[in-house]
Amino acid sequence: MSNLTVRPRRLRRNEAVRRLVREHAVSRDDLIYPLFVAPGTGVKREISSLPGNYHWSADTILCEIEEMLKLGVRSALLFGLPESKDEVGSGAYDAHGVVQEAIRSIKARFPETYIITDVCLCEYTSHGHCGIVKGETVDNDPTLGLLARTALSHAEAGADMVAPSDMMDGRVAAIRAALDEHGFQDVPIMAYSAKYASAYYGPFRAAADSAPAFGDRRSYQMDPPNAREALREVELDVLEGADIVMVKPALAYMDVIYRVREAFNLPVACYNVSGEFAMVKAAAAQGLIDERRIVMETMAGFKRAGADIIITYHAKDVARWLKEEE
User: Fold this and answer.
1) Which terminus of the chain, N or C, has fewer Cβ atoms within 10 Å?
2) pLDDT tens by residue, 37-59
3) Residue 52 backbone class (left: φ over 0; alpha: ψ -120 to 50; beta: rest)
4) Position 17 in a domain
5) How far is CA 240 from CA 141, 148, 169, 192, in A?
6) CATH code of the domain covering residue 319
7) What's a Gene Ontology MF term here (predicted)?
8) CA–CA separation, 166 vs 69, rounded Å?
9) Alpha carbon distance 261, 238 (integer Å)
10) Average pLDDT over residues 291-304
């Protein structure tokens, strides 16, 4: 007869008790689904670097939004691919740009959809950098006005939230001032606060055609070895008026998510980025992993680290699997 009195396995015997004592759970309400908007009509073009994801035009994206809503995902993050690019990224703040038109299209058909827009210039500039270039350097301060114009144009088109991803110093304050000045005090800012110069972005750059034409983004995105610096960046965004702060990427930076969660009493988002998604898809395609279990385990890891919000290309799959579990 055993002398054991403490048996943790008692609370693991079946699914009912495991659910009862589960410390962290992923919900469909936690998810934001990234979508890519392209010019034209009738466009549904699969993105080779992101299997199962597509470039959508403002008309065809409605089918994807409808499917997303049926699965219980209510929030989408829009990225734009302009018809043409120039040195100052004018397509980003064009009142009739691809993102602006997509917002109007979605809101007209599905007003309940919560639309968040990525605010950056990299997809729109001919050089692929996130701001105005002077020589071979991104010039911080002149860029702020263009970012503010971009955010304002999104709000005017009907965006519910704007999300600056450029990592320019002072951009949250510039955007907050522009929104407030034009009567958009109620439009929140989700700041890409701790955004690292990461190798995990490769598939996105192919999807958004946003690779830099020269150099790299390490002069404005964060150096991957740094964690204390992330807290400083987050603090500055909070002081400038950010409503939600984000850590990007997520998987290799769970310690940063945890540090931010412990230090700040604001909602914390994480971005499960393209490289993380593509690695799972590639391994699953070769039969090396159980995709569903791997993805759900990763989502739980983000929640355990302290993320309130998860931006992920797996959003529809996660929502479908959660429905099946119900």
Assistant:
1) N
2) 999 999 999 999 999 999 999 99
3) left
4) no
5) 15, 13, 10, 13
6) 3.20.20.70
7) porphobilinogen synthase activity
8) 29
9) 13
10) 98
DSSP 239: H
User: Is 4 within a domain?
Assistant: no
Task: For residues 306 and 326, give the distance between their C-alpha atoms in angstroms, rounded to a whole number.
Answer: 24
**CA-to-CA separations, 52 to 7, 12, 35, 134, 173, in angstroms, rounded:** 44, 35, 11, 38, 37
Between helices 171-181 and 228-240, what is the axis angle to 10°?
A: 20
Helix, strand, coil share (%) of the chain residues, nearest 5: 45, 20, 40
How many angstroms separate the CA atoms of 211 and 285, rounded? 26
Whether residue 19 lies inside any domain: the answer is: no
Give the total residue count for the chain. Answer: 326
Please give the mean pLDDT across all residues of the chain. 95
At residue 135, the pLDDT reads 86
pLDDT digits (tens, 9 = 90+) for 134-159: 988 899 999 999 999 999 999 999 99
> Which positions are catalytic?
195, 248
Beta bridge partners of 7: none
Pair of tokens at residue 302 = 């983000």
Give which of 161, 237, 153, 159 is closest to 192, Cα–Cα.
237
Q: Within a domain: residue 18? A: no
187-204: per-residue pLDDT in tens? Answer: 999 999 999 999 999 898
